[in-house]
Amino acid sequence: QRDSIVAPVTGLTIFNTNSGCLNIYIDTAWFEFCGVPVGTIAAISCTDTVQTGSLQAGVAATGVNTVLRYTNANGGSHNGVTVNSTGVAGLTATLAAGSFAKGAGELVFAISGTPVSAGEAAFTFSIGGKVCTITRQVAAQTPAPALPLAAAVPRLKTVFSTTSSGSTLLF
Question: 36-68 burial, b if ≥16 CB within 10 A, otherwise e?
Fold first, then answer.
């Protein structure tokens, strides 16, 4: 029935009973929108996390993740999350867009950036109708190793010289 509409105008919106989806005519073609439900979750564990990798002040984060568990999700989609740290600045937690599993599942946040100091970095975000704060500890920067004494102090060379009078000079 949709294709029998003569000269549809841009923006014409219909409900397609064959597919059960909204169809919108844009320029010269029909586009079908079968929405995925917006994702919701009943509960999220903000403190019972699985953390991989470690963070150190002044050192770029690599391979650092925080995993959160959730329950009673509807299987709907989410737009992901990107949030900057508070407390210790310089970090970003990123969750890629996707869908919740139906029931229980996990969300994996990748932590990136370079923490500016030691302490606790906090990331507060909203997802699936819940607000959560996750934290990560940042260790103090490891001081550069001290140079061995032999490398720090120049070595003196001892030179003996005998003069024509037979005296020995020490340099």
Answer: eeebbbeebebeebebeeebebeeebeebebeb
**Whole-angstrom distance, CA of residue 121 vs CA of residue 84:** 9
User: How far apart are alpha carbons 42 and 51 in whole angstroms?
Assistant: 23
Are the C-beta atoms of residues 75 and 38 closer than 8 Å to each other?
no
Q: Which of 66, 76, 63 is nearest to 133 (CA)?
A: 66
* pLDDT tens, position by position, 25-59: 988 888 888 776 778 999 999 988 999 999 999 99
How high is the pLDDT of residue 16? 86
pLDDT per position as a tens digit, 56-93: 999 999 999 999 999 999 888 898 999 999 999 999 99
What is residue 46's three-state secondary structure?
strand
In the chain the first and final C-alpha atoms are separated, in Å, by 107
